[in-house]
Give the backbone structure.
Amino acid sequence: MTGTSSSYQTTTSGWVVFSAVSVFVSSMSNLIWGLTLLLQGDWIVLTPEAIVRFNMTTAGVIFLLFALFQGCVGGGILTGALWARVLGVLGASLNLLANMAFMSLYPAWAWLLIIIDGLVIFGLTVHGDEVSG
């Protein structure tokens, strides 16, 4: 019998799935942080050691918009889209820098998110081509 099998096997690298889930978790974190800045800005105390001084309302809106962006990118990463992997690396880089800026406010949480953002960048750059759809 001569014939070719045209079955497709869809596999996704565990690193890419980890990166997508981490982007979603980061999105939820930024959503909560943005709402906190908008609704309860008096909870945040800026000390003289703060790296960046910012307007709470502006920062809250930026974090909310960035959370929406990350949610869309996380969904795109799960589908294997190249644009989502590129924007995922860009978004993780921006989130890493934002967490460095807010490190004086919540150092342990900032370090945790910086490490996760680094792993997202690693997963999407080193293992991003292992996605098949």
